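[Discussion] Sanity-checking designs against the backbone

I'm trying to build intuition for which residues belong where. Below is a structure token string of 71 positions. I'd appreciate it if someone posts a full sequence so I can compare it with mine line by line.
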């Protein structure tokens, strides 16, 4: 697993380069049940931040995206 830690809520789409596309890849926002949309093209993973209401914020200090099943 790879954990992407943001100390502020991302205003723009997050991009991670160098990842290989696997059919089992998953992206989750830890502490939230919100679906995280994502797409991978080549070795570029793009994660637009999900829409979260203030009372749904899982942690006010950091937002952690878990990228699973990379290998």
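Best answer:
Here's mine. Compare freely.
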């Amino acid at each position: 697993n790879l954990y992407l830690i943001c100390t502020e809520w991302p205003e723009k789409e997050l991009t991670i380069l160098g990842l290989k596309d696997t059919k089992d890849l998953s992206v989750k926002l830890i502490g939230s049940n919100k679906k995280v949309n994502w797409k991978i093209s080549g070795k570029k993973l793009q994660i637009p931040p999900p829409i979260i209401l203030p009372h749904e914020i899982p942690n006010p200090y950091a937002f952690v995206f878990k990228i699973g099943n990379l290998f």
